[in-house]
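Subject: sequence -> structure tokens, single chain

Hey, anyone have a minute? Need the predicted structure for the following. Not urgent.
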Amino acid sequence: MIYAIIFFAKLLEVSIATVRIVLTTRGNRVMATLLSSVEITIWVIIAGTVLTGMHDDPWQAVAYCLAFVVGINLGILIEDKLALGLANIEVIAEFDLAKQITKNLREQGYGVTTFDCEGLMGKKLAVNVKVMRKDVDCTVKQLRAYENVMITITDIREISAGMIERRMLKRK
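Reply:
Had a minute. Here:
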């Protein structure tokens, strides 16, 4: 019974820590602070239990270590499902194709910014789209329907103006 308690408590603590780290890097101080208080409380209790009982029962440490490994993966899964924040999707394509992609995205209500650029084979167009992270998979799936496009995705920490900000304000 003690192994299950240690395992699931540590699993919860590490999952919370993983989500907290992501929130911290995204600048979400309030939620990160709240999660850290829960995280450290669980850690003190479980670490204390394992450290005091490890000499007599080393399997407690095994349960603790296994939960840490599983907890990292669970925390990443939780954060992926929450999909908090914003992302920038950049598409680089042949000029005419990029114009078509831009037109289609704008017709769907996306804010799109384009930049002329040049690749090895000539003139290209870079298409930048800011989206909510939860919309990234759907948007990328749509973009992959086009042939010969390069797609990159980066996280955005903060945004101060533009279509995405107006769309976020409408949702509130």
